[in-house]
Structure formats: C-alpha cells, structure tokens
C-alpha cells in the first residue's frame, strides 16, 4: 500500500512487514507508467548538458564499431537538437544535475564543459562522415573554440579548477577528457591531461583520489576513466592501486561499490551498480591503439 508521496522527489513511502513488524520503505515513483499527458517535468531533475553529450559520444561509438553512420543518419533530427543545445549551453553550463553532483549541483562546471566540447566534436566527425562537410567544419570549429577557452583557463593554473569561477585551490576528476583521447578527436593537448593526472596522484588518499575538492569520497569508475589521460603505466598504477586496496581492505564487505570514502574505505551507498562497467574503459583505449 502507498502511504504518502513526496511531491518534490517523487519517492513513495510504502508500508512493509517483516517478522510481524510494520516498517516503512522508500520506493521510486514509476514515472514510465504515468499518462503521457501528465506534466511531471522538473528541470532540476534533468541532466541536459550531460545527456546530450553522452548520446553524441555513444552515437560515435556505434558508428566506430559498425564502420558507418547509418544509425546516426536515421536519428539526425535528434542528434541535431542535442548538439545545438551543447553549442548554446555547454561551455558555461547553468546550475543543473550531472554525475559530479554528489556534493550538490554546480554552475560553470568545467568537467561538464569538457563533456560538451567532446560531444560537439563527436557530432562534427559523424556529420562529416555523413557527407555534410560544411556542417563538419562548422561544428569542428565550435568544438575547437570551446577547447581553446578551456585550455586558456587551464594554463592560468597548475591544473584545471572545479568551476569557471574558482581557482586551483579546487580540483575535480576531469574524466570527460577520456573520449577525446579514445576517439582521437585531438581537441585538447595531452600536456593538460598529464598535469591533471599529476594533480590526482598528489591528491590521492589511501583508497583513491576524491571526486572533487568538496568531499572526501570518490567514484571508482571515474578514477579509472581518468587513467585514460596518461600513457605512463606508473601513473596509472598510482591511481589504480588504491582502488585495489579498497577492494581488499574495505571495512564493509559489500559488492564492489563505486561511491566510497577515500580515507577510510567505507562505502557510501551504491553496491555492484552497472556503472562499474566503466572500469573496463582502458580496454577501449587499447582497442583504439
């Protein structure tokens, strides 16, 4: 039975019984089952820059694997909307949900701007392969201009700050650089990657490098994605070995958690999520080489 509904999150409180005792469990509202006419859209629950770029990066992955852009061409109308959103909002993202927001939403998130840049670069390559050379040149130029702005900002500091309006007293894992390298988009100079990696090693705790300056916890999948940025195996080992230590020494013996504290090895919440497939990303780099 449903006792109540949280109107802000859409979560439902459901009565449960265990060993003859009544308790309350929180479940998620099945939005997919609601009528299409219901207006349930909330901007603060969306990831517009994140997901527009994600889709374009994945479309390029399909094109690379299949050796053609037929799937992209079949969905060109959607892809065009996604890339235009990135062009308009991607370089200086508004405050919105993204996969870096465990410590709260961010405005001007640099890692999100990097993802937008890579997404536009991915679109440029696909539209060129589809035969539209003018559009390829246009979007490639935009991606390069975005990358140049990020690079100019990066060169002011020892490493890229967390946001456009912070300095290098802050940092975050800039794992979104990974597909620039995997797809050989070459939007960013690899010297920026190495500076980032050196910072992550410097900031590393017993069980890994924190996700960003705001908290001690990390995401193991994003650490592995960051390892793509360097070809130095010793640097990769410096970032990967604390994850191995977490798996061996974590005080809570739960299935591989991607969200845990880097000082104590205590898992935060997640267990054996599908996102851990991202820890195999270095295989994609090997394939690309």
Compose a concise summary of this entry.
This protein is mainly alpha-helical and 289 residues long. 45% of the residues lie in helices and 9% in strands.
What does this structure look like?
The structure is a single chain. A hairpin with a 5-residue loop joins strand 1 (2-5) and strand 2 (11-18). It contains ten helices and five strands. The chain has three domains: 4-33, no CATH class; 43-158, no CATH class; 195-284, no CATH class. 36% of the residues are buried. Helix 1 (48-66) packs across helix 3 (76-89). With 289 residues, it is mostly helical. Residues 1-9 have low confidence and may be disordered.
Terminal-residue CA separation: 55 Å
> Could you give the order of the helices and strands?
EEEHHHHHHHEHHEH
Mean pLDDT: 89
Radius of gyration: 21 Å
Tally of extended strands?
5
Which structural class matches the secondary elements?
mainly alpha
Low-confidence spans: 1-9
The main sheet orders its strands as: 1-2-3
Question: What best-fitting shape do the alpha-carbon axes yield?
Answer: globular
User: How many discrete structural domains?
Assistant: 3
Q: Which range best describes the helical content: under 10%, 10-25%, 25-40%, 40-55%, 55-70% or over 70%?
A: 40-55%
Main beta sheet strand tally, sense and closure:
3 strands, antiparallel
Q: What is the subunit organization of this protein?
A: single chain
Strand fraction band?
A: 5-15%
Task: Provide a count of the helices.
Answer: 10
